[in-house]
Amino acid sequence: MSDTPRILVDADACPVKDEIYKVAWRHEVPVTIVSNAFLRIPDHTLIQRVVVSDGFDAADDWIAEACDGASIVITADILLADRCLKAGAATVLAPTGKAFTTSSIGGAIATRAIMADLRAGGDQIGGPAPFSKADRSRFLQALDLALVHIRKG
Prior knowledge:
By secondary structure, the chain is of the alpha/beta class.
């Protein structure tokens, strides 16, 4: 395990990439943007791009294998969050700032399964709430706190 914190981003649909860059630059922490397609990233020594194949779960597989106890993983994917927690990631954050933890992930997976069953049964259920300024603010606070926590050990 590395002592140096780093941020791994499930980037294809991530709405907080610009916020991640700002926090990473302030804390001087490397960021790896992982996606299935080429994404534009800032030209900065702390920002790295990894483009994986467009195979099913290719980005998830890369992130789950790369994370360790100094990693902060940013993803909205509950199943990837579970894999990263099991792999020992220090912190897994949703773009809303919600932390996935070993004690909360089981409930999140169960809720996901129930919602999938309802959709498969033809029930008309709404999707997630629109991404808001409050979500963005919570995310910035959560990422900053996670980096401070990792550095303090």
